[in-house]
Amino acid sequence: MNLIQFFDLNGHRAVAAVQDGVARTVNDTASVYELTIAALSSHGGLAALIASRGLGDTVDRAAILAEGRMLSPIDHPDPAHLYVTGTGLTHLGSAATRDAMHKASGSKPAGELTDSMKMFQMGLEHGKPTDGGHGVQPEWFYKGNGYTVARPGHPIPSPGFALDAGEEPEIAGIYVIDQNGQPRRLGFVLANEFSDHVTERMNYLYLAHSKLRACSFGPELRLGDLPAHVEGTSRIWRDGKVLWEKPFVSGEDNMSHTIANLEYHHFKYELFRNPGDVHVHCFGTATLSFADGIATQPNDIFELEAAPFGAALRNPLRQQDEHPLIIGNVY
Questions:
Q1: Which of 11, 28, 173, 207 gives 20 to 30 Å between its CA and that of 251?
Q2: If we measure between CA atoms, which residue out of 235, 283, 233 comes closest to residue 258?
Q3: Element (H or E) spanning 170, and its range?
């Protein structure tokens, strides 16, 4: 079962369950967050609660997307309490582009391992513990909060000071922290972990800056576990034609870390276990248009699709103007 959130034709929030390609509204439900909080206080979990509330009218996902009424598949009543974070160098093959970028910038001579390649190798060797313990910690980064999330179908803004505006097709885990401070996973979504790769290429220490960009995820939330092998396609459209297209793979069969290991190294910090908070945690990619020399332009459209996640995630690129920044005193 997948879930979507949207505005109905009367402008009211609604939730629908998608099964076998058919979306039907969940009765008496205005948000996935509210549904989740209610499920945490009941027995049987989300699926049982949805069954008890019952399903109503069929809705047209394509029309909802085309009319701009689709919401992200989860949000928080206070956007500051939704964290967007991620981890890199987790997929087989993901280090090659990063390694080439840093050698091109002169950070390491040919033949000497970059820090990225060293971390990737650590993941290959110790990212999938088999003894029930914890593996090596991965690269980790902070992207923003609910204010930086672009809804499916809506523009992803790139700030005026950005040097690049590139997609990263990823799968992200969706979590809500329960009343006891325990992370509870709802499921997984497609995510465009939009980044500035030119800034990152200048110096690896600029990675944190390059990740402080908007993102988008959804439109559907897949409940339950992630398949071990996921195949998808990432595209960029320009002027109605496909400018660039490439397959991507994910799932643990294609990763150097287990999902459990990546989750542990995020939620081991007490900061990320505050009751009621929502977490969107991206698990990395090995496919980038930037690696193929693509420079995006305003109004290009990013498109990500993978069969387990239903409808494709599409977002046009919007270039923002840089606003003057004035720092004032209060005294």
A1: 207
A2: 283
A3: strand 169-177
pLDDT digits (tens, 9 = 90+) for 125-161: 888 998 888 999 999 999 999 999 999 999 999 999 9
Phi, psi of 175 (to 5 degrees): -135, 145
The amino acid that residue 308 corresponds to is P
Pairing assessment for the beta strands 149-150 and 215-217 based on DSSP bridges: parallel
Residues 6+ apart with CB under 8 A from 246: 233, 234, 287, 289, 292
146 Cβ partners below 8 Å, 6+ apart? Answer: 75, 76, 78, 79, 80, 81, 82, 84, 278
With a threshold of 0.90, does the pTM exceed it? yes
Cβ 165 vs Cβ 157: under 8 Å: no
Q: Which two tokens stand for residue 109?
A: 């001579």
Both tokens assigned to 171: 């799968």
Tokens of 114: 């970059």
CB-based contact 152:65 (threshold 8 Å): yes
Whole-number Å distance between alpha carbons of 206 and 204? 5
- Helical ranges in 127-274 per DSSP H: 197-202, 207-211, 259-267
b/e per residue, 210-239, with b = 16+ CB within 10 A? bbbbbbbbbbbbbbeebbeebebbbbbbee
* Closest by Cα among 100, 78, 98, 102 to 90: 98
**Rounded to whole angstroms, how far apart are CA atoms 16 and 23?**
6
Length of the chain counted residue by residue? 331
User: Given the DSSP bridges, would you call strands 313-319 and 156-158 parallel, antiparallel or unpaired?
Assistant: parallel
3-state SS of 143-163 is: EEEHHHEECCCCCEEECCCCC
Tell me the pLDDT tens digit for each residue of 47-79. 999 999 999 999 999 999 999 999 999 999 999
